[in-house]
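Continuing the batch. This is chain 6 of the set; chains 1 through 5 are on the previous pages. Same settings as before, nothing changed between runs. Recording input and output for traceability.
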Amino acid sequence: MPDIRHTPEAPTRSQTLAPGERIDAHRHDDHQIVYAGSGVLAVTTDSGTWFAPGTRAIWVPAGCVHAHRAHGRLDLHLLGLPADTNPLGLDTPTVLAVSPLLRELILACTRGPHDDTPERRRLRAVLLDQLRASPQQPVQLPTATDPRLRAVCDLLHRDPADPRSLASLGAAVGAGERTLSRLFRRDLGMTFPQWRTQLRLYHALRMLADDVPVTTVAHRCGWSSTSAFIDVFRRAFGHTPGTHNRRP
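Output for chain 6:
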């Protein structure tokens, strides 16, 4: 990522991003919690992309070079935490589940003014307690480095509905199924079916943020039926795709 901006203190603020708007690659000496009150947030590093709708937040550790992108109109909430405050002991970007209480705490802590008052210190202490109890969520698309694996991933990024098996995709890029299967596990930390599901969920969130109908999203992302898509989406995010854009 070129032209990396360094901001020693991670900002605590709220801002609105238009669909497709980006915040270019940068890093902070502090940790940061990044939460999208509406729309879908994507945080990208050299290692991959983490994505979160309104029921998730993304932990970005101190020193991590990252960029943001908005899908749909994004109400972005940024909360900085000192580098010595790490309630979950996380040293890589991680998607966290956001309970209704944690959501309200994030919103309260990112509203101005950001004075160091006793009330704000109490709010932050409760927020840290809630973070410690926040489950981590596997909502990530790791970046492939092996050229053969990257070629397969690029094919599916261009068309997430591509129904071909790993063997057929391998034949298209000149790699064997067993080799690719091993690379998915070794380099990306998941099986090919797991990675493809994550890819399809990522594209589904992007389309839903642009108000594409649920049935169309299911078809474009490769699910066999709308009901199958709804089931996978609900298990991943805790609500149905039809209610996704209506959530507070």
